[in-house]
Amino acid sequence: MKLSRAAIAAIAGVLILGTAGGALLYAKPDALFKAAGPDEAEKSELARFAVGRMKRLHTPAETPVAPDYVFKTREGADARFADFRGKVVVVNLWAMWCAPCVTEMPTLQALAKAYEGRELLVLPINVDVPERAADALSFMDVHEPLPFYADSAFKLPFVLPGESQMPQTVVLDRQGRIRAWYVGEADWAGPEARALIDALLAERA
Cα 198–200–202 angle (5° rounding)? Predict the structure, then answer.
């Protein structure tokens, strides 16, 4: 049966939309950021650190406190972002099925090692389903000194500013306020990221 031009166009449109929708969960380095980026007027003084390899860093002028959401420790106990007040916290949402998440983890490990003994906590939170927890634990065991936390309900990616995209990293100050966030794979051990961390560590309550 020969299809009309209108029918072919409709089918093509459905295929394109389906492909684009599937890509939304992953934040590719050169896609989606222009629409997601804040206006110049909405950026904070931390915008000066959105350069080089961190040029897509979001630094909103409004700095809400991180949500009072319960996730789990390695031992299964409840944890909240408020538990880490007094430290600068780099929250990283990751999963074993998320290739960019796995790729960037060594840079988070290097960041944690570089700031050991200081008031910085690198806080990876795994969002795999419980059936993949063993794999995620084994993966994190080779990335010491990073701890293991989990949100098997997969709700945090929708609660934090990255709007469901993965990987997603949110930086909290000592008061637990969201000061910066980044969607997509990044080099968290690089000089640009460390300059941001140093600036937040230099702040006092």
Answer: 70
